[in-house]
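User: Could you check the structure of this?
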Amino acid sequence: MFSLVAQRALQPGSKLAATDCVAKRVAVTGCAGFTDDAAYGAMDFLLDALDGIAAEVFGSVAHLLNLDLDIIFVDTTSTYFELDVPDELADLQAKVDDDGISRPVENGSRAFGHSKDFRTDLPQVVIAMAVTRDGVPVRCWTFPGNTADTTIMRTVKDDLAGWNHREDRIRSHVQLCWLALLLLRIVENATNDTWRNVRHELDQMHLVTLATADGHVAQRSATTAGQKTILGALKLPEPPRFLDFTVPSD
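Assistant: Sure, the predicted C-alpha cells are below.
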C-alpha cells in the first residue's frame, strides 16, 4: 500500500507502472517488488478499510499539523475515460432529505454528465475533495459521472459530520491519489519547501549494485547536506548505507 501511494507522489502511473517502479527505480524496505495482482489486492483492501483509514488519517494529521478545522473547503472535478459507452449504473438507493434533495451513494461508475474537461462525449466520474484553509486534503469521494454538485454536498456534509476496470477499483485509485497528495502536503509543511524541490533533492540519492564473480553488494550514495536537512525536518533516519550483501553459496 505504501509503495502504491509513494509511486503516485513520485512518478504517477498505472498499477503495472508501479510494479516496474518499485522493482527497478526505488528501494522499499521489506518490499523488493510485487505483481499487478498484488497491487489490485491492496486497492481492494484500501476500500474495505477506507472508513477506518480515513478517520485515523484525519485524526492523526489534524494533530500532527495542528490543522485549523474551523473552515473546510469542498470542490469537485471530473475525469473522463476513453470509452465508447458508459458503465451500467448500479441500482443504488440514494437517501432523500425532507427538502427533497438526495444524498448520492459513493460509486465509481463511469457515466455521461457535465464535463469540466469539456469532454461531454466521453463517460466520466466525479471526484469531490475536502481541504483545510491551508490546502491539506482531509477526505475525498468518487461518484458516478452524472451526479450533480448540489447533491454531492449533502453526502460530503454527512460524512464529515460523522467523523468503494471495476467501479470500486476506480474509487480505490482516487483514494490512493488522495493519500499521495496528503503525503505531499505533510512533507511540504514539515520542510517548509515545495514538493518539487524536495523530490528533486531526494531523487539524487541512488542505490548502486556492484557485482563480481565473488558476489554483489548494494550501496547507497553519500547523503548530501540538502538530503540531511530534509530527513531531519521529517524526523526520518538516513537509509542504510549498505542494503544487500550476496556471496556465492560455494
